[in-house]
Amino acid sequence: DGQLEKLKVYECKAYLRIHKLRLGGKKEELLNRIRDHIEVKLFGDVKYPVSSFVLNCKGDACKGDVVMFEQNIYRR
C-alpha cells in the first residue's frame, strides 16, 4: 500500500542483501525485485504449485549434488 516507495535505496539494498538477492539497478528495479520476492514468499505455493515441477532423477542423488528442476508452464 505505497510503503515500499518510501524506502531509500540503501534500505532496499539492505533488504535484498539479507535475502541474498541481486543488488544492482535503479531504485525502481530494486523495488520490483522486492515486490517479486514478497509475492513469492507469501503466495509462492499458489503461483508455483509443487505439481508444476518435474524431478527427472536418474541414478543416485547425494548430499552436495546439484539437482535441476524443470517447471511446467501452462497458458490458458
UniProtKB/TrEMBL annotation:
Gene3D superfamilies: SAP domain (1.10.720.30)
PANTHER family linked to this entry: SAP DOMAIN-CONTAINING PROTEIN (PTHR35323), ZINC FINGER CCCH DOMAIN-CONTAINING PROTEIN 62 (PTHR35323:SF5)
UniProt cross-references to InterPro entries, sorted A to Z: SAP_dom, SAP_dom_sf
Lineage: Eukaryota, Viridiplantae, Streptophyta, Embryophyta, Tracheophyta
Domain SAP span(s) in chain numbering: 4-38
Listed name of the protein: SAP domain-containing protein
Naturally occurring in which organism (per UniProt): Aegilops tauschii subsp. strangulata
